[in-house]
Design brief:
801 residues, eight-stranded mixed beta sheet, elongated
Length: 801
């Protein structure tokens, strides 16, 4: 919203400047701008007020249809119980509306919005500070009397159905949680809670909406803060003999027909947090065969404490090397997983527990997102690439572990200690940690990869790493001991190796990931952009080129720019008056060029109303004109003016009548000084802008080049843009190309070097202006690039025509 407000302010400034320049010729443009701006801001600031619902809803009355009221976790538990008919612990949900009531009762809703409005989540230190403030306020807030009564009444009803003493697992079930975004591990769970401590546990879970990692995660995933309201699931504790997580697909290859199961003794908190070793099983979906069975070193386990909360204690010696699951348990889990996957119609991430009597309970079921698909041929290619480019064995620092998120990355190793401050971790570092942890989520925007001693591919942090496509290797056992802090390393998470140094041969370019795609912010911004970005006013000669035809901010900017240029250059009736401030440039090209001299750019005698190329004293403009008028660049070709001689005649007629429309398009404008040039050209259906300074101080010198548009379809226009980008790159420019747009930048060269580059840009402008009509396939691009750089500016020898 802030960026949009800045854009609107700048647009209004342009409208004000245009009216100041034109003696208020376009007052109606203010109303048009205001109307469009209000429409955009109304969309972005749309209030998301929850409709009143009940405060508490029993689990047996909940299904997926209630997700907006009770959040993803509770809605899915209700769905599993009521529609799939698999066992889940009994319980109830405190609704999102109840949370809204709680915040409003303490006047915290407006305060939260104000604190978060300008928060930069990439500033980790500030993020942690704001988070602490908000959570402290919520933990100290009063629960409305009717809400507290409703929660305690629901707990009493539940107690009648369970074996005393009743203990509850008080879990986050925020709206948007367990949906397209997992929110894995971002919010809090309070375990083994007695009825008397239920209000305090409720406050703690609500406060976790503002954990640093939760704020960061939802912003990066594209959720408005007000989209994530905390419903709380209160479910009966399971006295778990063993617990774990089950994936109904391999998260790194969705065509791999297996179910993956991780298990620990006791409660599964340590497994999802990544603080302990676990057993792992891979089961074939079709045959039920256990393909992989690995026993972890299970030294510690978590159990409910008699006085409340949970306690850690040693695993009995007889169980440390004993598998948590036997074949009957595995089959039971497999059957439940397949049944759930069939019901939902997509892969699932399932939390489960088996109690002391051997009964299985489903504790959570959510979509397993981000799994990649590889065919057999692609898998072979990947393996072949790995073998072909395998670095020398002497560079290997570590082998083993499990791939939590595929990919490669390189950067300085940063070994994290338990008391480490996250904001100190540098950009691009490879994080080396004792265990996986959701607390690393706030830094995932700036680290390159993760390697841990302990952790599971089914843990919370692994889930988020896959969502953000951070190469992650877990459960290596010795990473913090064998990888030196500060040393440059390369991680190959796919093949489970960490190398010393920067290994270019195995580093693969990551496909850009947009974690926001499909999110509420993405959809809202996409809708608002329809009133910002499209350009409807393209041709000043058209009848609709007027203020009331503007439909977007881009239209207003385009209109204001065109009218301002006309006013500044006195085009119109004033072009023949004595007060003219711009002069036409006489050159034998079918172009109209008007020049404003800021000082030292032209050498003209007093009273002269037109300039010759010989009159140009601006160094950068001379360089550009040298290229534009190069003898091998034929501007008359394919312009409908015939030969070069007839092109010269067109140029003569344009000079006699500056208002006439030239075959190459509308007027071009040059603002010049001794060392400065801003050249804005409209050549047919595309636009070119060159802004450059070529002075005696090398650090001041630069060229900025911009090109966009064309007359052909978007495919051909894009090919021409790629062609231009490749030429610029080979000329030494830093290049950015998207669709039919190209930007080029060159800095800090001596002035004579930049003038030579401007010469080449002049040749480029004349040579490629019509190539969008010619480039019918991608294979032509390289030939045209090579021919241009060899001096064939007319491309007459193209064997493909």
């Amino acid at each position: 919203v802030l960026q949009t407000e800045l854009l609107i302010d700048e647009t209004l400034s342009m409208v004000e400047d245009l009216n100041a320049l034109s003696a208020a010729k376009y007052p109606e443009l203010f109303d048009v701008t205001e109307k469009i701006s209000q429409s955009i801001l109304g969309e972005l600031r749309r209030q998301r007020k929850r409709e009143p619902t009940g405060l508490v809803i029993p689990l047996e009355r909940i299904s997926l249809e209630d997700v907006t009221e009770v959040g993803g976790k509770a809605a899915n538990l209700g769905e599993v119980y009521n529609r799939v008919h698999l066992p889940v612990p009994q319980g109830f949900a405190v609704t999102a509306y109840a949370c809204q009531r709680f915040l409003e009762h303490n006047q915290l809703d407006a305060l939260v919005a104000d604190r978060l409005k300008t928060l930069d989540v990439n500033d980790t230190e500030k993020l942690i500070g704001v988070s602490l403030q908000l959570r402290t306020l919520i933990l100290e807030a009063e629960i409305p009397q009717d809400l507290e009564k409703a929660i305690l009444r629901a707990a009493e009803e539940l107690e009648k159905k369970t074996r005393p003493p009743m203990r509850l697992s008080v879990r986050s079930s925020a709206t948007a949680e367990d949906s397209e975004a997992s929110f894995a591990g971002q919010h809090s769970t309070v375990l083994n809670v007695s009825k008397d401590h239920l209000p305090a546990a409720y406050r703690e879970v609500v406060a976790s909406t503002f954990n640093p990692r939760a704020i960061f995660y939802r912003r990066r995933k594209g959720y408005f803060d007000e989209d994530v309201i905390m419903s709380v699931a209160c479910i009966a504790m399971v006295d778990a003999k063993t617990s774990g997580v089950m994936y109904t697909v391999d998260p790194n290859d969705s065509r791999h027909g297996v179910v993956m199961i991780s298990a620990v003794w006791g409660l599964g908190v340590s497994l999802v947090e990544g603080s302990t070793s676990n057993d792992f099983y891979q089961v074939n979906k079709v045959t039920g065969e256990v393909e992989i069975s690995e026993k972890g070193a299970k030294e510690c386990m978590l159990s409910p404490d008699v006085g409340g909360g949970i306690k850690e204690h040693e695993v009995p010696a007889s169980l440390r090397q004993t598998a948590c699951l036997d074949l009957s348990h595995i089959r039971m889990l497999l059957d439940s997983g397949l049944k759930l996957e069939e019901h939902y119609g997509y892969p699932l991430d399932i939390e489960w527990a088996i109690d002391q009597s051997g009964k299985l309970f489903i504790l959570q079921a959510r979509p397993l997102r981000g799994s990649q698909k590889f065919g057999a041929e692609e898998v072979q290619q990947k393996r072949g690439h790995a073998l072909k480019h395998q670095p020398p064995s002497g560079l290997v620092l570590l082998r083993g572990g499990s791939t939590a998120s595929e990919g490669t990355a390189s950067g300085p190793a940063y070994v994290v200690t338990s008391d480490h401050k996250l904001h100190r971790i540098p950009e691009g570092a490879v994080l080396i940690a004792r265990q996986t942890s959701p607390r690393f989520v706030p830094i995932m925007g700036r680290i390159g990869g993760i390697v841990t001693d302990v952790g599971s591919v089914t843990g919370h942090m692994a889930s988020v790493a896959r969502e953000f496509q951070i190469p992650t290797l877990v459960g290596t056992g010795t990473a913090t001991e064998t990888i030196p802090h500060g040393e440059e390393v390369t991680i190959d998470a796919t093949n489970r190796v960490v190398y010393r140094g920067h290994i270019d041969a195995i580093l693969k370019k990551r496909k850009p990931v947009n974690p926001m795609k499909g999110s509420p912010i993405y959809n809202t911004v996409h809708s608002a952009l329809k009133r910002i970005a499209p350009l409807n006013l393209t041709d000043p000669r058209e009848e609709n080129f007027k203020p009331d035809a503007c439909q977007t901010l881009h239209d207003i900017i385009r209109f204001s720019h065109e009218m301002a240029m006309q006013e500044m250059f006195r085009i119109g009736e004033e072009v023949r008056t004595e007060s003219i401030t711009a002069v036409p440039l006489k050159m034998y090209l079918p172009l109209r060029v008007f020049v404003v001299d800021l000082g030292g750019g032209l050498s003209l005698s007093p009273g002269v109303k037109e300039a010759l190329i010989e009159d140009v004293s601006s160094g950068p403009f001379r360089g550009l004109l040298k290229g534009m008028t190069h003898e091998d660049v034929d501007w008359s070709q394919d312009l409908g003016v015939g030969s070069r001689d007839s092109g010269a005649k067109v140029a003569e007629s344009l000079l006699r009548d500056p208002l006439a429309e030239g075959p190459a398009g509308g007027p071009s404008y040059a603002i010049i000084g001794s060392y400065y040039l801003n050249f804005s050209a409209r050549l047919g259906f595309h636009f070119t802008t060159i802004d450059t300074y070529c002075g005696p101080q090398i650090n001041d010198n630069y060229i900025n080049f911009y090109f966009k548009g064309g007359a052909a379809d978007i495919g051909r226009r894009t090919r021409r843009a790629i062609l231009i980008a490749q030429i610029l790159w080979r000329l030494g420019f830093k290049v950015d190309q998207k669709s039919d747009m190209v930007r080029g930048e060159l800095k800090k060269y001596q002035s004579h070097v930049l003038e030579e580059k401007l010469d080449m840009l002049g040749r480029l402008m004349g040579s490629v202006r019509l190539l969008d009509l010619v480039l019918s396939d991608d294979g032509q691009v390289d030939w045209y690039v090579d021919e241009f750089l060899e001096g064939n500016y007319t491309f007459k020898s193209d064997p493909r025509g």
